Structures are given as structure tokens and as C-alpha cells.
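USER: My hope is that you can spare some time for a protein that puzzles me. I am handing you a single protein, as its sequence and its fold in C-alpha cell form. Walk me, if you will, through where the backbone shape changes along the chain. The protein I mean follows directly.
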Amino acid sequence: MNSALWGAVAALAWGVSDFIARFTGRSLGPPRAMLGLMGVGCAILGGWLLYQDVTIPWHRINLLTLLVASVAALIAPLMLYYSLTYGPMSLAAPIAAAYPALVVPASLLMGARPELPEWLAMIVTVAGAVIVARNADEDPDETIASDLKNRRRAIIAAVAAGSFFAVALLVGKDVADTLGNVQMLWLGRFIGFTTLLAILLVRRGGQGVLIPIAVWPLILVQGIGEATAYLLFFMANQGEGAAIASVTASGFMVVAVLLGWFFLRERISIACASGIAMVFSGVAVLGYLGGEL
């Protein structure tokens, strides 16, 4: 299987995982749903490292950088879960997925010099996210849609998710270059899991971290899907096909939106669909340009 197909399968797995997050987040609350996801991810990625007999070069770890990347990687999906709790998939997913556009101006602070195509792709992506925010339809759940504040909460949470995804990407790249992609991801998941577990235990006690048996099948599918998507994407990013893999993998947002449209009957206006297309196009271009580096 070539890099483009690996990237496409990763997009499918990510999209399904994000779609399931809408149900687990609303059923358990975003923190507990996130705890379950990270626990499953830790187990799968840890098993992969053991199976591949991969070691972690502990002596090369920059603890501060690792902590910043791990905390950002914890907050980002947590904010996405909150966004999916307060608004429809067609609103939350495209705005959060626009995070590569934030990497372009942020990279200036790190000494990079983005060129014109990257700036244009960033503008298209941000413009698409704004169009989505203004034109996405109401949540199909009338209880959620009846509170007008929920839409604002969903947008704010999605923007926060995208911002922290950008931080995790920028800082995590240095960690991955030092430790390796899977090692960095496992450490980040482990730190995020233990941090969130400690917070929930302090705030809510033992009952606050328990997940009902009925919800575990969804948590398992979601966790397996997300961990598998990362592993496939890392495999796809090896060699000459990295740029194309980044383009196909960026389709995860479209997968999530289409699942919401098909199964939840979310209505998508022409204006909203145009915004989603702009976000996807901009992110795909940024992914391609980034994959060429």
C-alpha cells in the first residue's frame, strides 16, 4: 500500500474517532471521555513499542519541551470534545481542523520564512473556518440548539482546540525529531493520561473516573481508531510519499462531517459546505508543502 492510501486510511480512522467523540463526550462529559481515549491509546502504543522492541532514549529528553507538547496534546482534543458537546459536527470539526493555518504565522517566531503559497493557503483556511462559524446549521439535538449560548461555546472551544493542536504540532515536532514519532506520542499520551486522572481524582473522587461498561465499546473503538490512525500516518510519512500522505490524511475532517450528515441528519448549507471545502483545500495544501520539507 502506498503513502497516499496509508494517509487516506488514517483519515478514515481519525474521522470515525472524532465522530464517536460526539457520543462519548455527551454521554460521559469531555474529561472522562478523554481519559478513556488516552488510556486505550497508551495501551495500544505501549504494546506497539514492546512488539517492535523500540527503546526510548531517556537521556535525550528535554523535559520542559515534552511537558509543553504533552499538555497541549491533552487540552486540544479535550477542547474539541467540548465543542462537539455544544455544537454540530459540521461546526466543530472544520474549525478545529484549521489548526495548520496557525502554524504558518507561529513558525515566524521559530525562524522559519513561509513563502507565498503557504500564506495564501493559510488565508483560504482561516476564511473557510470563518464561513463555517457563521453558516453552520443548528445542532440536530433540539435541547442543545435551544440554548443560544451553546453555539458560541462550541465555536470558542473549537478555536481553542485548533490553537492547542498548533502548539502541540510545533513543539511536538522537536520532541519527535529527538525521540521518534511513536515514542513521543506514547509519552505524551502517558503524561496526559496521568495528569487528567490526577485532576479528576482530586476534583471528583474515584467515582469521577469510572466509565460505565455500556460506553466502553465506543471508547475502545475510538481509542483503537485514533492510535491506529497515528501509526498509519507515521508509516505513510516515511520516504518520498510524505507530501501526498499529508494531503490525504487531512481529509479526516471531511469524513467526520459526512458521518454527521449521514447518521445524525445534520443539515449543511451551500455556504457551510463551501467553507468546509476551503478549510480542507487550505489544510491539504499546507500539508503537502509541509510534507515536502
